[in-house]
Amino acid sequence: MNEAGAWTEERVELLKKLWSDGLSASQIAGELGSVTRNAVIGKVHRLGLSGRAKNPAAPSTPRNNAPRKAPTRSPSHPMTGNQGATAGMTRGANALAPQYAPEEEPETQQAPTPSEDVVVPFSERVTIMDLREYMCRWPMGDPTTPEFRFCGGRSQTGMPYCSHHAQIAYQPAADRRRDRSRVARG
DNA sequence: CCCTGATTCGC
DNA sequence: GCGAATCAGG
């Protein structure tokens, strides 16, 4: 039978399906299992699927010269002693769970109750003291109260907010009619 | 700090 | 052909 780790027809087809579906490499890797995101990307490139739905004449990352500078990898000492890093590479493909978000939109719940805490767990809420550059700076509550907190979620570099709040704050007025229900006014 | 894909290169 | 390592951008 097909062994895990081998790219069988089914795996390749599923890979193409998920890739064309817009799923990220890590998600596909998590769904396939036994493979890492790198493996998925590698296979994708090998198949010639790279680029997904991007403009063929619009390379986001035009590596003009990038001489790859000799990485000079040392295969002699892949792991000297102990990696001492995370106890288990819980990163990348393994970090993402093979779960899907159907994103249900309860229209019956149009309550204007701006309770962001419903989407942001308390554990992530931080004060300005614990705020980091990579943390979401979405304001919560009144800044005049001592209970004022920030989202504290994971934000991208350069982004003041996390992915969730970034979409809320950066909603184009044209598409704003969608309304996220509990989005509310900050 | 997190994530993404792209590429190289040893196996 | 495969995939880890690395790079580069967000």
Structure summary:
The protein has helices spanning 9-21, 25-32, 37-47, 163-169, and strands at residues 139-140, 149-150.
Largest sheet: 2 strands, antiparallel
What topology, given as strand order, has the largest sheet? Answer: 1-2
* Oligomeric description of these chains: single chain
Tally of DSSP helical segments: 4
N- and C-termini, Cα separation: 55 Å
Structural class: mainly alpha
Percent helix, as a range, is: 10-25%
Unreliably modeled segments: 54-60, 63-70, 72-103, 178-186
Number of strands: 2
Mean pLDDT across the residues is 66
Radius of gyration: 22 Å
Overall shape: elongated
Percent of residues in beta strands: under 5%
Order of helices and strands: HHHEEH
Protein name: GcrA cell cycle regulator
Region (Disordered): 50-117
InterPro entries: GcrA
Biased composition (Polar residues): 73-85
Question: What is the topology?
Answer:
Blueprint: H1 9-21, H2 25-32, H3 37-47, E1 139-140, E2 149-150, H4 163-169
Helix pairs in contact: 2-3
The structure holds a DNA duplex (11 and 10 nucleotides).
Protein name: GcrA cell cycle regulator
InterPro entries: GcrA (IPR011681)
Biased composition (Polar residues): 73-85
Any key phrases for this structure?
GcrA, DNA-binding, disordered C terminus, 2% strand, 186 residues, mainly alpha, two-stranded antiparallel ribbon, GcrA cell cycle regulator, elongated, 21% helix
